[in-house]
Predict the 3D structure of the following.
Amino acid sequence: MSFSITLTVNEVARTVTLDDPRVTLLDLLRERLDLTGTKKGCDRGQCGACTVLVDGRRINSCLALAISHDGAQIRTIEGLAKGDELHPVQAAFIAHDGFQCGFCTPGQIMSAVGLIEEAQAGADPERVREGMSGNLCRCAAYAGITRAVLDAQERMAGAGRKDAA
Amino acid sequence: MKTFDYVRPATIPEAVAAASAPGAAYLAAGTNLVDLMKGGIAQPGRLVDIGHLPGLDRIEHMPDGGVRIGALVRNADLAYDRDFARRFPAVAEALLSGASPQLRNAATVGGNLMQRTRCAYFYDLASACNKREPGSGCDALGGENRLHAVLGWSESCIATHPSDFCVPLVALNATVEIEGAAGRREVPVESFHRLPDGHPERDSVLEPGELITGVRLPAEAAGFAGHARYLKVRERTSYAFAVVSAVAALRIEDGAIAEARIALGGVALKPWRVRDAEASLADARPDAPAFREAARIALADARPSGENGFKIELARRIVTRALTLAAAGTPDRVPALPASPFAPVPGELSHV
Amino acid sequence: MSEISLTQNPAHVRHGSNVGQPLTRRDGLLKVTGAARYAADNHPESMVYAALAVSSIARGRVTALDVAAAKAHPGVIDVMTPENRPPLAEDPDAKNHPFMFRLDVLQNDRVRYPNQPIAVVIADTLEAATEGAALLAPRYDVEPARVGLDGNEVFTPQGVGVGNPPNDSHGDVEAGLAAASRRVEATYETPAQYHNPMEPHAIVAAWDGDRLSIDTPTQGLAMAVGRVAGLFGIAPEDIHIRSPFLGGGFGGKGVMSGPQVLGILAARMVGRPVKLVLRREQMYGPVGHRGPTRQTLRLGTAGDGALTALAHHTRTASSTFDDFFEPASNASHTLYASPAIATSHDGVRLDTGTPMFMRAPGEATGSLALEGALDEMAEACGMDPLDFRLKNYAEVEPTSGKPFSSKALRECYAQGAERFGWAARPLQPRQMRDASGLLVGWGMGTATFPALMFQAEARAAIKSDGTGLMETGAQDMGQGAWTALAQIAADGLGLDIDQVEFRAGTSDLPDAGIAGGSGHTATAGMALHDAGAKVIARLADLATSAENSPLFGAGNAGVVARDGRLFRRDDESRSESYADILARAGLPEIEARGKSAADPAVRNAYAMHAHGAVFAEVKVHPELGQIRVTRLVGAFAAGRVINPRMVESQYLGGMIWGVSFALHEHAITDRRSGRIMNANLAEYHVPVNADIPSVEAILVEEHDPHVNALGIKGVGEIGVTGTAGAIANAVWHATGIRVRHLPIGLEGLLAGGLGDA
C-alpha cells in the first residue's frame, strides 16, 4: 500500500509517495526530504529536539505520523532565515550564547518562534521559561535561551511597530 | 512499530464502522498512541485517523450556560480560550500544567481522556502487566512503585491515571459524548475511567468502535469560577507528571462554603473525586481546620501499594493547600507556573 | 592586547588580540540554521539502516532469536547475530590499557547487563529495521541479577578512576578524630546517573574495500581510530572519522562504544553504508554511566573549628566484566587543610553496563558528600559555612604538601559571597520565608577540578598571501573548541582571526588528544601555540637571513609577530609582511608542526587545580516539599580565559548539572530484574528551563605562570563540583532537614519531618 501526500515545507510544495504509513513527520523530513536540521533526541515526545511548526503551531514531529498531515504547512529550521538574513530568534541565540553543542538548538529556536507567535508569554521571563520547558538542553544553556527569546521578541515587536508606521 | 492499515474516514459513522474491526484504534494527534506504538505497547492493526473529521474542533458555549468541547479541540486552544478559561479556570490551569507546550498544541481533548498510564511496568514489555497483557501479573507490585496508586488499586494493577485535565473535569461533573454503532450516549467523566476490578486491561467504559466526540461541562460548573484551583506536585518545575495533584473548587456564599468540589490526580487508576470530603465542607467556614478535616476524609481509605506511603500524607496536604488557594480566590490569569507550588499566592496566605 | 610567550625568555614573541575576546561562536551560524552536520545527518549513496536489539535481562544467555520473523519483515536485508557477525581482528574483551573498555559486539550469547546489544537488524528503511529488531523476540536463560551497592561481594579495586590508587593516607586520622573536640560522621548516597547527551550515539559507516569512512561523534578522534584499527585489523591511515560536532558528550563519547562498532560491522556485513542510531532507551547500558556511590565522611575539629582529621570512604560499583570505579573520595585530597586525611574506596560488581567518566567523575560525587559533611561540621561548630571553609583554607595542597601553581579561591569566595549577598544569611536553619510563605535557604560549596593536560599535535602554515592555516583534530562537543582554539591559533600566528583558517574535527588532522578532563583547550591549545611558534621561527629565519629584508641580522634580537608582519624587536620601525617574506623566498607556504604535553617537572613542583565557590538559594514548599533552586551564583578561577562568553556558558552548564545532581537525576533499577525502569527522558529527569530562574557565573581573574605557557586550567567540569553540595546545604538551611540520599526529593523531606504539625 502506498500513499501520496502533499506537504508545503518551508513554502515549497512537496509531494511524497509514502510506501509505509509508519513514517513520522520527523523521519520524513530527515531521512526522505534531506532536511536534517530537525533533530531526533528521544523520538518519544520527551525532549523537544524535533520541534517544527505545523500549520503555524509548534509540535513534536517525532509523534506526528506523516500520513496524517497531508496538506499541512510545515516550517523547519531550514526555512527560518531569509537568504543570508537570520531570523531575529536565530540571531539572538548566537548573541546570547543560547546553545553549546547545538543539537537541541533547531528545536529550541522553532519552539521559541512558536512561543512568540502564540503571544501568551509576553515579556515575563517566568512565562518564557515555562513556555520553553518542552525543550531539554543537556548542555543547559537555559539562561542564554531565555535571554535570547526575550531579546528576539522585543526586536520583533520593535520591527513590527516600524513596519506599521 | 508494527505495520498497520491506515484509513481516513470522512464522517463519524464511517469512522465508527472502520474502528469496529478487531485491532483497530482511533488516531487523533497521536501524542500518546504513537508513543505507545513505538514502544510496542499498542499494536493496532488499523489506524482510523479521525484528525480530519469535520465539526469536532469547536468550543461551543451553549444557551443553557454549559460548554461543549469538541473531541478534536487541542489542549492549548482550550486552555487559551478566554471565555472558557474565565468560566472554568481550574480546567485551564490543569491543562497548562500538563506535558509541554508542543504536546499541548497537538494533543486533543478526546485523546487526553484516552491517555494510558505511565506505569513503568506497563511500558516495559519484559515485565508482567495485567493492563498490557491480561493475566500476566503485575510486576509493579513489589517493584519500584514509589509513585503508584494509594487509592482504588487492587493486586491486579496499582497504576495511576496520568491526566491533569481529567481531574477538574470529574470535579465539575463533566460528561463525555460517545458515538458508537449503537448510537450516541453520554457518560459522566467520573465513571468513564475504570478501576482495575478484574479487567485492568480496560481503561474506560468505551466499547469497541466507540468514539469520543466531545466533552460537556454543565452551566453550574461555572459557578465555581471565583474559587477554583488546580495544584500539582512534581519532581521538576515543569514538563513532569504529577506525583499527586488536586483540584479544589468552592462556591462561597456569605462567607460560608455553599458547595465544594475536590478531586485528586496521580493517586488512582482514575481521577479520584472525594464526595465525602466535599460534603464535609458544606456550610463550613473556609478555614484551615475545615480544610484539614476534608483532606483527612478524602484520604481515609488510602493505603500504600508499595513504597509510596508518603503519597498519602502528601495527598492530604495538597488537598488542604488546594482548598486554601481556592478559598483565597482564583487569580485573574493562570499563573506563569500553572498549578505549581511555586506560583505566587495572595499575600494573606503567606503564613498560613 | 594580550601577549603570549612560549617560554619565560623566548627568541620571538607573538602579539595577538584574539585571546580573551568574548567572540560569539564561529560555528553559531551553522548551528542556528540547522546546517551543522551531526553524525546521523549524513546519508551517503545507497545507505541502509541498522537497528539494535538489546537485552531485557541483566544476566544470563540468549537462547533464541526469531531471525526468520525479522527477515520476513518487508525491507529487512539481514540480521546480524553472534552466529554470523563478521570476524574481528582483536578480542573485544581484551584490555591493553586503562582507557580501553571491553565491548559487547555480539561475541557470544552471554548477557551481562540490561540493554546490551544482542543482535542488529539491517533494512532498507529505518521503520523496517526498527520493527525487525522488535520481531526478534529473544528468549533467555535468566540468572539472578546483582543489583545495588550491597548486591555482591565487596572488594578493594586495584585502581579507581583511571589508574589512581584506591586508598591514600596522610597523617593519623584516628588520632586526629580522637583528639577532636567535635566529630561528624555522615553517609551520603548518590544514584547511578546517565550522560544523556541530547544526541544519541550514532554512526554512519561506509567501507570501500579495506578502507573505512565513518561519521560518528567522538571526544577522541585519534583514540577512536586506534580502537577501530585494532578491532578490524586495518591500518589507521585507512580509517577516516569525521566528528565536526558532537551533540553533547560529557564523557559518554570518550571512547568508541559497542554500538558504534556494531554499525561498522553491519556495514561490512551488507556491503553498503549503514546508519545506526541508538534509541534513547538504548543509551542506558552500552555507552557508560556514572556509578552509584555510598560515601562516609568522618571529620574532626578542634575547638577553634580547625580540622584535625578528614576521612572519606566510598563504596561504588562497576560492571561484572570491566573496571571503572568512581573515584569519589579523591575529592577530599586537595580542598581543606587537615593534618590527617585518609581516603579509601571499595566496590561491588553489578550486572550493569560499565560505568565511565561522566562530567567531573569523582569530583562531582565526592564534592557533594564532602561539602555536605563540611556544612554539617560548620553547623556543629556554630560557624558560618563560609567562615568555616576559610578557617580550613589550604595554603598548600594538604595531601602532597606542594604549593599551588595559583589559587584564587579566596577571591572566589569573596566575589561570590558579595554578589550573592551571603553576609545576610542567618546562621540557624528555617529562618527565611518569601512573600508567598515558601521556605528559603542559602547554602554554599567549594568547587575544584584538577588542571589536566594530555598530549596533542598541531600543524601551522603561513601561505603566500600572508594568511594562516592551523590544523588539529580537536573535537567540539559544545565547549567552544571551534572558537577558542581558533583564537589561540590566530594569536599563535600573530594574525587576525579572520586571516586564519582553522581546521578540526576529523581524524586525518594531527592528534589533538581527548576532549575530556577539562583539558582540551590547554592540550590542543598548547599544540597550536607551539606550532605557531615554530612556523613564526621559520619565517623569522627566512627574513633575518635575507640580506634585502628590513629584518636582516635581527636573529639575535628576535622579532615580534603581529598583524601579519614581523617587527624587529628592538626597532619596530623595521618590519616586513609574511607575504613579502614568503614571496622573496619563493615559497607558496611555510609550515611547522607543534606539540604539547604536560611538563613533569612542573607537575612535580606544583599542585594545579581550578577553584570556585558556589552559592545557592533554594525555595521549598513548607508542606508539599517541592524544591526549586531560585538563585545560583558561582565564582570560578581557572587561570587564563580564552573566551569569556564560552567559559561563562561552561560554568553555567556545569552548575545546572549540579542542580540536576542534587534534585533530579536518578536511574531507577528494578531490584529484581536489574532493568532500568526510567530509561527515557520523561522520567529520568534533567532540569528544564523553568527549573533555572537565575544562574550567574563570575570569572575571577587568575594568572598562573606555571600550569602551561598559555596559563589555561580548564573550565568544563568544575561547575558541577561544589554546586550539588551548595544546593543540598541550602535545602538544609531552608528546612532544617539533612537529606543525605540523592537526589533530594519529597520523600526525604517528608521523612525528615517537613510540614509535620
The interface with chain C takes residues 1-3, 40, 118, 120-121, 124-127, 139, 142-144, 146, 233-241, 243, 310, 313-314, 317-318, 320-321, 337, 340-342, 344-345, 347, 349-352 of chain B (CB under 8 Å). Chain B has twelve helices and twelve strands.
